[in-house]
Structure formats: structure tokens, C-alpha cells
Amino acid sequence: MMTENTNRKKVVEISNLKKSFGADLILKDVSLSLFEGENLVVLGKSGTGKSVLIKCLVGLLPTDSGSITVFDENMTSASGEKLALIREKMGFLFQGGALYDSMTVKENIEFPLRRIKKELTESQIEEKVKEVLENVGLADAINKMPSELSGGMRKRISLARTLVIDPKIMLYDEPTTGLDPVTSNEISELIVEVQKKYKTASIIITHDIKCAQKTANRIIMLNDGLVFKEGTLNEFEASNEQLIQSFFN
Amino acid sequence: MRNDIANASITKTKGRIIALSEKSIAKKEEAFSFFSKISDVTLFLILVFKETFSRDFEFKEFIKQCYQIGYKTLPLISITGTIMGLVLTIQSRPVLLKFGAETMLPSMVALSIIREMGPVITALICAGKIGSGIGAELGSMKVTEQIDAMEVSSTNPVRFLIVTRVLAATLMIPLLVLYADALGILGSWLGANIKGDVSFVLFFSQAFRHVEFIDLFPAIIKTFFFGAAIGLVGCYKGFNAGRGTESVGKAANSAVVLASLLVIIIDMIAVQITDMII
């Protein structure tokens, strides 16, 4: 995988990223790259800064130091319209789905579409909404309110809302947390399907090893604000490190 | 012995110095937190003002908020407005009777409602309903990462969520006040008919005999400020809520308290200014 990646284009590059909240240094020195078309799983215990890492990547949290480049554009110095343009290439699946409570499923999916793809006509918007809902297997839920959906359905709808703008990079924040094993498995399969169908490069933040095993092309483990190990699934499974063993066994 | 006394005195002095420095640190922190809050509020106001005049105004969301803030508050305002006029009439009647000025009752009630009671009571009711509603809605959106999701979708949350709500509150509250004033006078007519028999037309012509434009104008102007204050406070508290679910309740509660307080303060300032001008 590592040799394969040398021929691929880097879509995200994070170098020496540091982030603290008050006196707590969450990310001490994190560097990683994401290559086009790959699924990169970021593993780690709760509180190791996994979610903080992707929130810094998408510009939701300011960084203390270090650099983040997305498609060769510097995210850390971007603001206003430039930041919005970079974000249009990224999709973010939030831990709880983050569906807008006051809007129906259809309105939720239309929301980013109407703002980012302003050139689309009403019929094209409708078609696109139907298409992504079918892709996540929830075409019937189009007129439902988020409160009428189960946890797994919310995640799927949220994924549909993210996919509707055809992102080049997908960021999944704990996609299987709080779901039963069957639904977790379905979401993991959906992540792989999305990678194949939409040709996205993805960063999957998780501590669910089954999700990692199903989705990962490459894994990075974070521990104590630093990159603890980077490698393929096989390399991780063969590792004798106690921390890694505690995840895989 | 001397050494013991000297040591004890040194320890005492050290203790005092430590206590003083702790006090001064606490005061410095308090002052810092106070000034950082002021700077937060100032930045928030600047941001809202800037986004209000930006190119992409969220007109659809603004209309939706006008419906939420204006139309959905009508039942509450209808009840409180009518009761306000009714109670004021029942309470004032015996007093006016004592002075033989019962015929002044419609004018007195109309002037009281238009100049003071209508705007202030309606604004306080709105501070409770609208202020807490906005605070809780935005607070829960913050907790469930909906605001972050909006930002990631290349949508400016200040423009979409705050500007629309503040403008809707600023425009709808004056309309609600006018509506409450009208119902208050109607309630007054109902009150007058409990112990008397006054025709609707006679009561209204009596009520508006002494009402002039100068009574209505400052009262309406101040309601725009009430509306803006309620909208801004609700949005500020909701938008700056913490990450936990308990912060939603806190945001709603503090929005009501602060908005009500601001309504009273704005009213006091408006009365002073009106008094100076007229």
C-alpha cells in the first residue's frame, strides 16, 4: 500500500499539527497524508484528538501551529470565500448525523445542494436528491422529519446529504458509534460502496475495529496526541505492540 | 523566644501576602473575563451588522422566521392583550369614579396601553416566548453539531440563523405590539361593559379622543429596539451555548432573563428621551 501511494496524488497533507484547548495539548505533533481514492482509518482511544484532527482539517477549529493543505490549498490560512471553495470539495459525516431538526429529509439534502450547486434547476435538484437517497437505501424517507428516523437511518441520511454535492474527500467522524452491530456493519459497507462509486478519498475516525477492518486501506493510530503507528491492516494485525493488540484482540 | 516571635510574624506576613496576591489574581481573572465577554458581545454585534448587509440575504428563512415569531405568537398576545385592557379598566374604574372622572376611562386606558403597557407587556411576553425559543433552538443546534454542519456546507450560520431571526424579531414585535394595543382597548371595552353599558363606537371614539400621533410614534419606535434586543440576546445566548445538553437550558433561561432586563432598560431610556423631546 505504501508503495502504491507513492504513485498517487496527495489530496490532504497535514504537517506537524498542534492543537490545544487552554492548557491541554490535544494534538502534540501530527503529520499525515491522504492519497486520492484511499480510505484512511484513524484509530485511537477516546480523547486522543481524532475528532479534533478532522475538525481542524475542515477548518471548524483553528490550529495552534502546523500546516494543512487540501488539494494544494493551504487550509490554515484560508478564510471567507476561499475556505468555502475548499470545503465544497469535502463532505463531513458528523458523529450524531447533525441533521437539521426543523427540516424534512428532502430539505436537509437540498440544503447544501442549493447553496453549492447554484446552477442546478429544480428538476435536477429533485433528481439528485432521489439518486442519493436511493444510494443509501432510504428513498422512502424523503418526506420524514429527522425525529422520525432511527440512529442508523439518520447516519444514512446524513451521508446522503454529504454525498449530494459530489465531494472529493469524505471525512467520517465515528460513523458507527452508538449503532447496533448489524447497522454498524451496513454503514461500514456503505463507506466502501461510497469509495468505489464516488471515487472519494476518505478519512474515517473510529475506535470500532470491525469498521476499521472493513473499510481501511491504510491505518494511522493516534495516541497521546501523536501518531503512534502507520501501516496497513495486515501490519497492524501482526503487530506485537500492546496498545495495538488491545484494539485488535 | 525572639526568633519564634519573628518567625511567626514572618509566616503571618507571608500568609497575608499570599492571600492578597490570590485575591488580586482572582480580581484580575474576573476583570479579564468581564472584558473578554464585552469583546465577545462587541464582535458578535459587528458580525451580525456586517452580515445583515451582505449580498446573499436568506429571504426564505427570514419569511419562515417572521411566521414563527409573528404568527405563532398571536394566540398568546391575543390573550394577554385582551386581559391587559380588561384588568386595567376594572382596576381604574373605582378610582376614576371617586374623582367623578368615569368618562375619562376610555382615554386613560387607551393612553396607558398605547404609551406604556402594550409595548412593555408584549415585549416581556415575547422575551419569554421568542427569546427562550431562539436560545434553546440555537443552543440545541450547537450541541448536536448542526451549526458546524451548516458551516461545512459552505453556509454562513450567522447570515442564515442569526440575521434572519434578529430581523424577524425586529419587524414582528412592533406588529405584535400594535395588535396587543388594539386587543387591549377591545378588552377595556369589555371591562367597561361588565358594570355599565357603553356602545362599541362610543367607547372607541372616547378612547381615541385624546390619543395623538406623538403618543403612538415614540411607543412604536421603542418596540423596534425591544425586538432587536430580544432577537440578539436569544441568538447570542444560543450561538454561544456550551457543548453539553444542560447548556441548552442555560442558554434559554439566560436569554429570557437578559432580554427581559434589556426591555426594561430600553423602556427607561426611551421614556427619558421622549420626555426630553416632547
TrEMBL record, chain A:
<dbReference type="InterPro" id="IPR027417">
    <property type="entry name" value="P-loop_NTPase"/>
</dbReference>
<keyword id="KW-0067">ATP-binding</keyword>
<dbReference type="GO" id="GO:0016887">
    <property type="term" value="F:ATP hydrolysis activity"/>
</dbReference>
<keyword id="KW-0813">Transport</keyword>
<dbReference type="InterPro" id="IPR003439">
    <property type="entry name" value="ABC_transporter-like_ATP-bd"/>
</dbReference>
<dbReference type="GO" id="GO:0005524">
    <property type="term" value="F:ATP binding"/>
</dbReference>
<protein>
    <submittedName>
        <fullName>ABC transporter ATP-binding protein</fullName>
    </submittedName>
</protein>
<dbReference type="Pfam" id="PF00005">
    <property type="entry name" value="ABC_tran"/>
</dbReference>
<dbReference type="InterPro" id="IPR003593">
    <property type="entry name" value="AAA+_ATPase"/>
</dbReference>
<dbReference type="InterPro" id="IPR017871">
    <property type="entry name" value="ABC_transporter-like_CS"/>
</dbReference>
<keyword id="KW-0547">Nucleotide-binding</keyword>
<feature type="domain" description="ABC transporter">
    <location>
        <begin position="12"/>
        <end position="249"/>
    </location>
</feature>
TrEMBL record, chain B:
<dbReference type="Pfam" id="PF02405">
    <property type="entry name" value="MlaE"/>
</dbReference>
<dbReference type="GO" id="GO:0043190">
    <property type="term" value="C:ATP-binding cassette (ABC) transporter complex"/>
</dbReference>
<keyword id="KW-1133">Transmembrane helix</keyword>
<comment type="similarity">
    <text>Belongs to the MlaE permease family.</text>
</comment>
<keyword id="KW-0812">Transmembrane</keyword>
<feature type="transmembrane region" description="Helical">
    <location>
        <begin position="216"/>
        <end position="239"/>
    </location>
</feature>
<feature type="transmembrane region" description="Helical">
    <location>
        <begin position="251"/>
        <end position="271"/>
    </location>
</feature>
<protein>
    <submittedName>
        <fullName>ABC transporter permease</fullName>
    </submittedName>
</protein>
<feature type="transmembrane region" description="Helical">
    <location>
        <begin position="160"/>
        <end position="180"/>
    </location>
</feature>
<feature type="transmembrane region" description="Helical">
    <location>
        <begin position="120"/>
        <end position="139"/>
    </location>
</feature>
<dbReference type="GO" id="GO:0005548">
    <property type="term" value="F:phospholipid transporter activity"/>
</dbReference>
<feature type="transmembrane region" description="Helical">
    <location>
        <begin position="69"/>
        <end position="88"/>
    </location>
</feature>
<keyword id="KW-0813">Transport</keyword>
<dbReference type="InterPro" id="IPR030802">
    <property type="entry name" value="Permease_MalE"/>
</dbReference>
<keyword id="KW-0472">Membrane</keyword>
<dbReference type="InterPro" id="IPR003453">
    <property type="entry name" value="ABC_MlaE_roteobac"/>
</dbReference>
